[in-house]
Design goal:
By secondary structure, the protein is of the alpha+beta class. The chain has 2 domains: 120 residues, TolA/TonB C-terminal domain (2-Layer Sandwich); 130 residues, Rossmann fold. It is 24% helix and 28% strand. The protein has 7 helices and 14 strands. The strands form 4 sheets. Strands 1, 7, 9, 10 and 14 form a 5-stranded mixed β-sheet that branches. A 5-stranded mixed β-sheet has the order 3-2-4-5-6, sandwiched between helices. Strand 4 and strand 5 form a beta hairpin. Helix 1 packs across helix 2. It starts with a strand and ends with a strand. The N terminus is likely disordered.
Length: 288
Amino acid sequence: MRLAASVFLALMGAAYSHAQETSSVTLPEIEIRTLANLILQGAGKSDCKPGECSILVANFTLPSGATSPLGMQLADAFSNELASQQKAIQVIERSRFQMYLEQERIPATLLNSEKAIRWLGKQLGATAVLGGTTEDQGASVRVHVTLRSCEKERAGPVEEFSFPDPDSNTDLNPIDSFPKTVPSSNPSSITLVLRAGVSGGTSPGCSYCHQPNYTNPAREAKFNGTVLLQVTVSAAGSTVESKVVRGVPFRLNEAAMNAIRDWKFNPARREGEPVTCMVTIEATFRLH
């Protein structure tokens, strides 16, 4: 296993976006009700039995793996329908799912695998995950839905239906499920900082930057990816604060932040004096 981490002068321009827009398509209630019933009838094939099962409904995705306003609306509708039809099976609140994605800042495309979605389900206490895909067919949308066990490589049958959507081009625009901007710090908790490489300042350099550890779930999934972090480095060369800008699954966010917490830097300088500054750090996980 080889892992590399590098420090950049300033926050890089983000190549992704978060749309505040929401889809307001009139969904086909009868089809959703019927499909939810079929999923519950076949839930035993995914080791999901009444009284012993908790279902997480993930955001429905495009063929690319990204989610969309319509994909999120469909997931909400299926979650509500499953909860109303079967009281003996717990349905994880969608707000918990969304809160977790916003906290970990994991793009939908990185959850577009069975291992990743099963891992995510277990993080939220689910024993099964309902996933769906949406496909633009011009003036209509095709939906495929599958229930998967979180513990075993078992899945129920693929159920599907189509419904009209004249605005499918807009409703299926890819978006990330978390805001583009990183939540700001409590202004009283950190002294005023500069961005590295601006206002006459230099960038800090690594003095002692050990590699983060791979997690067992990431190793089992043979996952490769990059965590992008916003890090505040003090004038003394230590990490004051770190935040995930763009994360990855399998608890690698936590592994990267734990490592960076102990890193030592040659501090940034302005006019020859060490200063506190903010930099972007990439922790890239590669298994060879």
